[in-house]
């Protein structure tokens, strides 16, 4: 564990986004969601200003602020009792969180930020959303959504089609 | 981790989905490191379909690493337990002879699976007798099921999720009895099928052990054959497996076969023949205490035991049913330790109560085939299949789940007719595979591998000891030879023997010396042969060495 600081202020974790914007959250909040914060605690020592700095310099401020938002909400939810109600409320919140204004670029940035601090809950949520976007689509639609070029030979395509002939498309 | 099916949905879902589609047609490429994470959360049908998106996806989605990760993702999905499914081989009365149909159904259900449950028909394994294909092991191994066509002596492997069938190269040589088991080698992450066939070879019983891995074009011999000390156990196990339909069980990275002690003349010190898939070596497990040594068990009694894997542990099931309801029970003994073969009673199913008793006392054959549930999805239930109900429906097969805590039996599949022709007594045909609900991810038990290595070591050690002993004997002989020769040699002008007796002794000594020298030379050649064969690892040579031990 890190050496206990002499002061009694709460320790903070600061995420620095592109453009030098700082986003702070209490260490306890970060520990709930971020695996790298949990692991880092074994190695780092707090000095002076009582804060751990995490640089996410190639990510825009908006995804980083959403990330902090997510961590705060997760920490609050972790303290409240688990119940069917709570699960339902969590699902509703997740839906609003990744609402209509979250476009694909923002989604990817959010995913990169989550991966940087190993926030497994958020990674899971964003991946589920992307998987939901592409599940059930035809390969051509996937290529359009993800901007991929088709590079299969006709033989390979036929082989896959016969393998999958039982799937109702 | 959860998959796309559990993405939070509400009434606005459809609207939002359309909106999301509209928004996301921006054509942004997904970063490579994120692709795997997203694809792992897709259901199987989508994964199969998306192989056609691009070549790198085809490679990724077919790779072994991805398959294991996806399997773990699916099986850790505790929040939404999947209903258990049953894979059935059903008589195809309506289809032409020579085809076998496999159906995937969800219990509870009456037999006669519906047409839309039809998984596939094995059309391209023609055989003169219809419905000759049986399922070998009632529990699938990581999603694959082994099927056996007895008249054609051909094995097939089918994947219930992707509906792919692989036909293994058929066996064309001579053979008496054969059995095969399918397992998964966690180290190399590949499936292996082991086939054991007994043959008579110049009046000697020979067991051929061949391994098949998917993708290979033919069977290859196993890395190690059956050691001589286990030869008669293996013969008994193979015969038992084929004649009484006691299939092997895969657990902890090993395939296990039950030995039929009534076929073994010697005292049955071993009850189970094991085969390690990683090392490809054979071993054995000591018999439980209720296998009274020295007493030959009757055929009928030995039919009443079989192996099953419950909660990743090997168990023996004893069928202790009798005419007296209060004294009838089914006992399940689990193996605690591969090394010293300790067995302990894990469950006893009393058949004295009315409902349980009626369902389980009545049929001629009762087999425990697995368990379902346990952590998270409800109480653990034991799955039991029964056949040949005598008093009620004749030749019928049923499937039940038994809750050991509440002692409740629930019949989940019934009315399944057996094949048209009556089977000879004692024949059990594995007609289904219990695919189960959530399955615990079993990556192989490292302790099991260690225990098997310990069991195999004595063979290696004793072989080494024998070779050292043989070499010593050779040296001793040489020493004696030369001593005797030197002592009896008087050509160099030492004092010649004066008396006749002395001369006779001399001659005797020389004869002895020469005799020893010849014997010693032969022995030396023998020892050299053993050493080279042991170094080469020749299984035949090792068997010869084992013969001397």
From TrEMBL, chain B:
CDD domains: F-box_AtFBW1-like. Keywords: Membrane, Transmembrane, Transmembrane helix. The chain crosses the membrane at residues 464-487, 507-531. It holds the Pfam family F-box. Residues 24-69 form the F-box domain. NCBIfam families: F_box_assoc_1. This is F-box domain-containing protein.
């Amino acid at each position: 564990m890190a050496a206990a600081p002499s002061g009694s202020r709460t320790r903070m974790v600061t995420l620095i986004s592109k453009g030098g914007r700082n986003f702070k959250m209490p260490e306890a909040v970060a520990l709930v969601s971020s695996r790298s914060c949990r692991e880092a605690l074994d190695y780092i020592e707090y000095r002076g200003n009582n804060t751990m700095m995490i640089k996410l310099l190639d990510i825009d401020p908006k995804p980083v602020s959403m990330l902090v938002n997510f961590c705060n909400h997760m920490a609050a939810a972790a303290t409240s009792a688990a119940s069917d109600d709570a699960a339902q409320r969590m699902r509703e919140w997740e839906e609003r969180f990744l609402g209509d204004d979250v476009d694909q670029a923002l989604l990817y940035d959010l995913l990169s930020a989550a991966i940087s601090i190993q926030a497994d809950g958020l990674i899971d949520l964003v991946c589920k959303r992307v998987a939901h976007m592409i599940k059930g689509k035809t390969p051509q639609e996937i290529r359009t959504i993800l901007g991929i070029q088709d590079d299969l030979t006709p033989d390979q395509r036929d082989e896959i089609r016969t393998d999958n002939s039982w799937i109702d498309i | 981790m959860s998959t796309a099916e559990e993405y939070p949905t509400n009434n606005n879902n459809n609207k939002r989905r359309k909106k999301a589609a509209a928004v996301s047609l921006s054509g942004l490429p997904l970063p490579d490191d994120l692709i795997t994470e997203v694809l792992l959360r897709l259901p199987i049908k989508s994964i199969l379909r998306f192989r056609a998106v691009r070549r790198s996806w085809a490679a990724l989605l077919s790779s072994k690493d991805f398959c294991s990760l996806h399997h773990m993702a699916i099986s850790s999905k505790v929040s939404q337990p999947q209903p258990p499914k049953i894979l059935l081989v059903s008589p195809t009365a309506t289809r032409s002879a020579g085809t076998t149909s496999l159906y995937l159904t969800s219990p509870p259900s009456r037999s006669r699976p519906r047409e839309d449950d039809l998984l596939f028909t094995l059309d391209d394994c023609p055989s003169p007798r219809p419905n000759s294909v049986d399922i070998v092991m009632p529990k699938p191994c990581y999603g694959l099921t082994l099927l056996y066509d007895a008249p054609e002596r051909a094995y097939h492997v089918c994947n219930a999720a992707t509906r792919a069938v692989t036909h293994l190269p058929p066996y064309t040589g001579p053979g008496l009895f054969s059995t095969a088991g399918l397992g998964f080698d966690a180290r190399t992450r590949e499936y292996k099928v082991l086939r054991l066939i007994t043959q008579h070879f110049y009046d000697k019983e020979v067991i051929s052990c061949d391994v098949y891995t998917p993708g290979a074009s033919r069977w290859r011999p196993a890395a190690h054959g059956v050691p001589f000390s286990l030869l008669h156990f293996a013969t008994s196990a193979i015969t038992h497996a084929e004649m009484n339909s006691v299939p092997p069980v895969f657990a902890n990275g090993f395939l296990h076969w039950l030995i039929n002690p009534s076929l073994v003349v010697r005292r049955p010190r071993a009850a189970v023949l094991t085969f390690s898939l990683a090392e490809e070596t054979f071993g054995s497990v000591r018999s439980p205490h209720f296998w009274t040594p020295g007493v030959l068990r009757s055929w009928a009694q030995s039919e009443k035991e079989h192996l099953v894997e419950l909660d990743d542990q090997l168990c023996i099931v004893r069928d202790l049913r009798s005419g007296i309801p209060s004294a009838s029970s089914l006992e399940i003994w689990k193996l605690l330790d591969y090394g010293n073969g300790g067995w302990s009673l894990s469950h006893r199913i009393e058949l004295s109560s009315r409902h349980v008793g009626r369902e389980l006392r009545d049929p001629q054959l009762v087999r425990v085939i697995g368990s379902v549930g346990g952590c998270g999805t409800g109480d653990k239930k034991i799955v039991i299949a029964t056949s040949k109900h005598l008093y009620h429906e004749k030749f019928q097969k049923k499937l039940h789940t038994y809750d050991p805590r509440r002692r409740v039996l629930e019949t989940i599949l019934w009315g399944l007719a057996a094949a048209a022709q009556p089977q000879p007594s004692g024949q059990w045909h594995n007609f289904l595979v219990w695919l189960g609900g959530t399955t615990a991810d079993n990556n192989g038990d490292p302790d099991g591998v260690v225990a098997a290595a310990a069991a195999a070591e004595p063979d290696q050690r004793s072989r080494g000891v024998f070779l050292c002993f043989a070499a010593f004997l050779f040296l001793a002989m040489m020493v004696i030879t030369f001593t005797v020769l030197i002592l009896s040699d008087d050509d160099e002008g030492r004092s010649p023997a004066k008396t006749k007796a002395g001369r006779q002794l001399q001659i005797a000594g020389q004869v002895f010396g020469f005799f020893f020298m010849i014997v010693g030379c032969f022995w030396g050649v023998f020892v050299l042969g053993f050493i080279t064969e042991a170094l080469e690892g020749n299984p035949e040579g090792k068997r010869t060495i084992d013969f001397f031990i």
